[in-house]
Amino acid sequence: MKHGQKMNELMKAQEVIDYLESLRDEKQCEVSMRYFKTGKGEYGENDKFLGIRNPQVHETVRNARDLPLSEVSQLLCSHWHEVRLCAVLILVDKYNALATKRLMDNPQAKMQRKDIVDMYVKYADHINNWDLVDLSVSKILGRWVMEEREKGTALLDSLADSGNLWRERMSMVATLWTMQKGESFWCLRYAEKHLHHKHHLMHKAVGWMLRDLGKYVSMELLRDFLRRHAHDMPRTALRYAIEKMNETERKEWL
């Protein structure tokens, strides 16, 4: 597919890859590589970018939403970051379509949602940067844990205990969906588990989820957590957690 050619419905993984490769922007590629820390020893070391902006990826997703899961798995294995992003967003789109009010209790739709969850976890090692995690995990695993509380919690526990940064971040950021539905259990569970994580990306994730605990569930629950942990939690996590408080209260916690 040549650059600028009109995109039609994409039904094969290679068609998606060819189209995204046709949009390659070398200048933006350099920007993305710096932004996502691809240098030696950095968290995104060796990741490869096409230099495609997110709106272009989202447009591709709209034209590839009917891609079979077997083809999506090929996208997840791509060395191109934007192709993997496209893959996880297709999974989100598929989950959305199967989780409408009409289909929530449909046995076939439930099995298909579980297939998406299984694929997400199977290829978790390829969902290996913060944007790939943050744009997808709560809308898939976060939703599923609300459906299958016991199995879902066991799954998030296994991610939290994996020792892998991106799987650990999945366990934390997945709780965003649950908080938007008024649930505090999972946020508090994984915030405590990851509170003293060594990586700054986890400090940010913990603080972000705690901030949204106050936003979506209860500011008092957030304050109670801070009363127990503010004295020894990482400064970055604390600053994120109190971001939406008024200036006076922020100063008191700091």
Could you please describe the fold and organization of this structure?
With 254 residues, this protein is mostly helical. It has 16 helices and no strands. Helix 8 crosses helix 9 (149-160). The chain starts with 12 loop residues before the first helix and ends with a helix. Mean pLDDT is 94; it is low at 1-5.
Structural class: mainly alpha
What quaternary form is this?
single chain
- Return residue spans where pLDDT drops below 50 for at least 5 consecutive residues: 1-5
How would you sum up the major sheet?
A: none
Strand content: under 5%
Dominant shape: globular
- Spatial extent as radius of gyration: 19 Å
Number of strands: 0
Topology:
Blueprint: H1 13-22, H2 26-35, H3 54-63, H4 69-76, H5 81-98, H6 107-122, H7 130-134, H8 137-147, H9 149-160, H10 165-173, H11 175-180, H12 185-194, H13 200-216, H14 219-229, H15 235-241, H16 247-253
Helix pairs in contact: 1-4, 3-5, 4-5, 5-6, 8-9, 9-10, 10-12, 10-13, 12-13, 13-14, 13-15
In short:
This protein is an all-alpha fold and 254 residues long.
What structural keywords apply?
254 residues; mainly alpha
